[in-house]
Design goal:
Elements lengths: L8 E3 L7 E3 L3 E4 H4 E3 L14 E5 L15 E3 H4 L4 E4 L3 E4 L10 E3 L7 E4 L3 E6 L6 H8 L2 H9 L12 H6 L1 E4 L2 H46 L7 E3 L7 E3 L3 E4 L4 E6 L16 E3 L4 E2 L2 E2 L4 E3 L17 E4 L11 E3 L7 E2 L4 E6 L5 H8 L2 H12 L10 H6 L1 E4 L2 H44 L12
Parallel strand pairs: 5-10, 17-23
Antiparallel strand pairs: 1-2, 3-12, 4-11, 5-6, 7-10, 8-9, 8-11, 13-14, 15-25, 16-24, 17-20, 18-19, 21-22, 21-24
Amino acid sequence: MSLPRYPNYKDSGVEWLGEVPGHWETKRIRFVAQLNPSKSEISQLDRDTVVSFLPMDAIGEDGSLNLDKEKPISEVENGYTYFRNGDVTVAKITPCYENGKGALMQGLLNGVGFGTTELIVARPKPEEVTGAYLHYLFISPDFRALGESCMYGAGGQKRVPDDFVRNFATAFPPLPEQTQIAAFLDRETAKIDGLVAEQRRLMELLKEKRQAVISHAVTQGVNPDATMKPSGIEWLGDVPAHWSVCSIRRVVSAIEQGWSPECFSRPADENEWGVLKAGCVNRGLYDQQENKALPAELLPIPEYEVRVGDVLMSRANGSPELVGSTALITSTREKLMLSDKIFRLRFESQIEPEFFVAALNSRPLRSQIEQALSGGNGLANNLPQSSLLSFFLCVPPVVEQKLICIFLKSELCKFDTLTTEAQHAIDLLQERRTALISAAVTGQIDVRGAVAA
């Protein structure tokens, strides 16, 4: 879509903004909106009145709201942020702020809501700015980047100060034009969001198909003419007649866990020792950047250093679906150690490490892991060695294991390529969305003629 510029521009007087349409007026947010209005304005409501309750995870990065949670005012009036329908919120803590979390509050129960204290609330002055336009201003990349540069605090506790929002200066179009710009952005961002959703659905389908290919290969092989036999396990069904089915304890010779000292929150520099986090192993992939730097006063334990050829498994994770994720390390930097949240596995001669990794990432093994966790054998999303060793897997002859791995490498490469292409499309669409919002709220494009198009 090619959109025209305005017929004339003037200097906004704001360094980051530059020139703006000649009829727009430069103002600070404090002159167009009231920040953090007092909850005393609802003092007349009965304390048993039920209102919407929004923790941070109920506010989407796309401006959406999950209004499922409700609480009486008496439970939330102290210690939570107050807002009502028509207010515009913006997250102030990292990384929620950088990710664009915030929303125009709509559909609140009884018109009132309380939520996380990590929100800044702006109530539009109706004679100055519309809520929809203010929301787009708050999610624009310029606002976000400038706010990020003003953050205070350290690490994961960095916040945007309220004064940044209060004193933020930009140019505002007349109210009717604000409505037109917001309507245009509503329409165009909805189109983009729809295309992004399609690509994400495609990625989910590719992931399901990828796992189906792995599961079929490690339980039935790649020879469609192979003679089959009952596995003796109801949920597994038939397997090739010359394969064996056994517990993992029959093919694993050793399991090792590492060390989890108090580390820095940042990754280790090139010449520092680091301790791998549980997230270093994710659905068959190893990410060496998922580590924490070991303080210089602590001595590393060299025997815990990971090396090429190691098979690592996440035994504990905040996300249950990632517990049991297994990867073969094909490359890694030096000076990275196992943590106690990771297993390092050694194998007997009848199993190829690469085949074992494929089997552990298949649906049958994932089902056993999930059952162990939900059944109470795992504590706090933790997979004990005893549970792991009791799981069943199919074991073809070693030569056939190698052939299966060659087949999977070829097939999975196709899925990975398609997934990469879908992610690239999403990135381009999101860049387009961001650029469109930025251009519209800074007056670099004139969308007035496109609203009715």
